[in-house]
């Protein structure tokens, strides 16, 4: 059984027991959260696709940790203009463990 959820403006295919990193969610570590934006639920041959969301479907997950991703380096340059700009960015994330998918 798996589901497609939407969180942080992105879509993720999740199954029970998986861990995934999503955009930062303001929740405490070891707390359980409910993801209600479920776009699709599949259980074997039965597939339920929402328009846009599946009615009554929820995914329950536990917050494992919070962290920051790899550093992305941004370098801008205009040739022959003496313009160079360096910048870095590290995106915050929340690691979730999927506990239950219910339709």
From TrEMBL:
It holds the Pfam family Ribosomal_L21p. Keywords: Ribonucleoprotein, Ribosomal protein, RNA-binding, rRNA-binding. Signal peptide: none annotated. GO terms for cellular component: cytoplasm; ribonucleoprotein complex; ribosome. It comes from the Bacteria. Part of the 50S ribosomal subunit. Contacts protein L20. PANTHER family: 50S RIBOSOMAL PROTEIN L21 (PTHR21349), LARGE RIBOSOMAL SUBUNIT PROTEIN BL21M (PTHR21349:SF0). Belongs to the bacterial ribosomal protein bL21 family. This is Large ribosomal subunit protein bL21. The gene is rplU.
């Amino acid at each position: 059984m798996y589901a497609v959820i939407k969180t942080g403006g992105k879509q993720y295919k999740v199954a029970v027991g998986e861990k995934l990193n999503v955009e930062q969610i303001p929740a405490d570590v070891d707390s359980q959260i409910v993801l209600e934006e479920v776009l699709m639920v599949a259980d074997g041959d039965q597939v339920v696709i929402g328009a846009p969301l599946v009615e009554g479907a929820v995914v329950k997950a536990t917050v494992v940790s919070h962290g920051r991703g790899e550093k992305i380096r941004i370098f801008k340059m205009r040739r022959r203009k003496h313009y160079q700009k360096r910048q870095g960015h590290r995106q915050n994330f929340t690691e979730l463990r999927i506990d239950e998918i219910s339709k």
